[in-house]
Write a structure and sequence with these properties.
CATH class of the largest domain: Alpha Beta
Keywords: ATP-binding, Cytoplasm, Glycolysis, Kinase, Nucleotide-binding, Transferase
Helix content: 25-40%
Distance between the termini: 28 Å
Order of helices and strands: EEEEHEEEHEHEEEEHHHHEHHHHEHE
Strand content: 15-25%
Binding site for ATP: 18-23
Bound molecules: adenosine-5'-triphosphate
CATH architecture of the largest domain: 3-Layer(aba) Sandwich
Number of strands: 15
Subcellular location: Cytoplasm
Radius of gyration: 21 Å
Family: Belongs to the bacterial glucokinase family.
Largest sheet: 7 strands, mixed
Mean pLDDT: 94
Number of helices: 12
InterPro entries: ATPase_NBD (IPR043129), Bacterial_glucokinase (IPR050201), Glucokinase (IPR003836)
CATH topology of the largest domain: Hexokinase, domain 1
């Protein structure tokens, strides 16, 4: 086991854990390393002016347990003492939290690091396997999450620990390969001149792809929300929506295969995020796995790598709890992201 340095010393219990999304914030309290987490009702970020008010009213006012520390996962980079969230107005100020909420120790990490912590221990009941099941190995893994954006993280297994590797993998280039791709690509909305994976593989990306397909087919688009597109696709009630979702899972397979190669993720690639669970029947068709495995000269390697959809309803919180209980099992970098009284 790696030796604990002072900055990696366990956070003191009870620990408040939180998954702070753009729309929803989910909180639990871990009383000790063995107790089941006590969950609190979802908090809508728009209902509270500050995260401190949300924690006070949504958690602390509802329990007699006073947390001594907090581990929060947020969407966006963690830098400095004032951390704005990507998709909502909250700014996280750990020093103010320590002063006002009775906390003595606060750790802030990236939301996809929390997803990576979660896939270290996700059980069979909390995942759906896509394609042939191969025996799970204790080996590096990766997670991709199409939701509001496309989150990507690796989970390296080394020195008897799981080491989450957060990054900006959702922004890698995604190029056309098939004849149909070459028809569609000129009609996709680019970002500063290029098509990144996130231009297609997220909620907004579903709309982008659907509109491009409608343009190529010279059809007036009739579907507006990402959920309309996937609902019609799964029901087989709109041809362009069906093709959108078929291509979406193909491109997701292509990118997931690339990420598997980068991390040598023999332990499996996991799909999280709000969209994966909603398009599970489409992911179970052959296209996702075919694209995932189509990686010459390494197709045999990719064939041996399992792929799963994470179905745990609170995966990020489960990952944070696993870390909070047994920090020595994880090589989580805390430098510049941990504040103490
Ligand atoms: N049925 C659906 N099919 C396809 N996309 C959907 C569906 N329902 C929601 N979405 C899209 O999923 C995205 C939200 O993803 P997700 O639930 O992962 O949110 P998030 O990024 O985790 O944010 P938060 O944690 O704040 O809720 C939005 O773009 C939304 O339009």
């Amino acid at each position: 086991m790696p030796k604990l340095t002072h900055s990696e010393a366990p956070l003191p219990f009870p620990i408040l854990i939180g998954d702070i999304g753009g729309t929803n914030a989910r909180f639990s309290i871990l009383v000790d390393a063995y107790a089941e987490p006590k969950h609190f009702p979802n908090v809508h970020t728009a209902d509270f002016e500050t995260i401190d008010a949300a924690i006070q009213q949504g958690v602390l006012d509802k329990t007699a347990v006073q947390p001594r520390s907090a581990i929060l996962a947020i969407a966006g980079p963690v830098r400095g003492d004032e951390i704005p969230l990507t998709n909502c107005d909250w700014v996280i100020r750990p020093k103010t939290m320590i002063a006002n909420l009775g906390l003595e120790d606060v750790l802030i990490i990236n939301d996809f690091e929390a997803q990576a912590l979660a896939i270290a221990g996700v059980s069979e009941e909390h995942r759906e396997t896509i394609g042939e099941t191969s025996e799970g190995m204790i080996a590096s893994r990766a997670v991709l999450g199409p939701g509001t954006g496309l989150g990507v993280a690796g989970l390296i297994h080394a020195q008897h620990a799981w080491i989450p590797v957060p990054g900006e993998g959702g922004h890698i280039d995604l190029g056309p390969r098939s004849e149909r791709d070459f028809q569609i690509w000129p009609h996709l909305e680019p970002i500063e001149g290029r098509i990144s994976a996130e231009q297609i593989l997220c909620g907004r990306g579903l709309q982008n792809l659907y509109h491009a397909i409608c343009k190529v087919d010279r059809i007036e688009p009739v579907l507006v929300q990402p959920a309309d597109i996937t609902t019609h696709a799964l029901a087989g009630t709109n041809a362009q929506a069906e093709e959108t979702v078929t291509l979406f899972v193909t491109y997701l397979g292509r990118v997931a295969g690339d990420i598997a190669l980068i991390f040598m993720a023999r332990g499996g690639v996991y799909l999280s995020g709000g969209i994966s669970q909603k398009i599970l029947p489409a992911l179970q068709k052959p296209e996702f796995r075919a694209a995932f495995e189509d990686k010459a000269p390494h197709s045999a390697l990719l064939k041996s790598i399992p792929t799963h959809v994470v179905t745990h309803p609170l995966a990020a919180l489960a990952g944070l709890s696993a870390y909070a209980r047994m920090p020595a099992n994880f090589g989580l970098a805390t430098d510049g992201r941990r504040w103490r009284r």
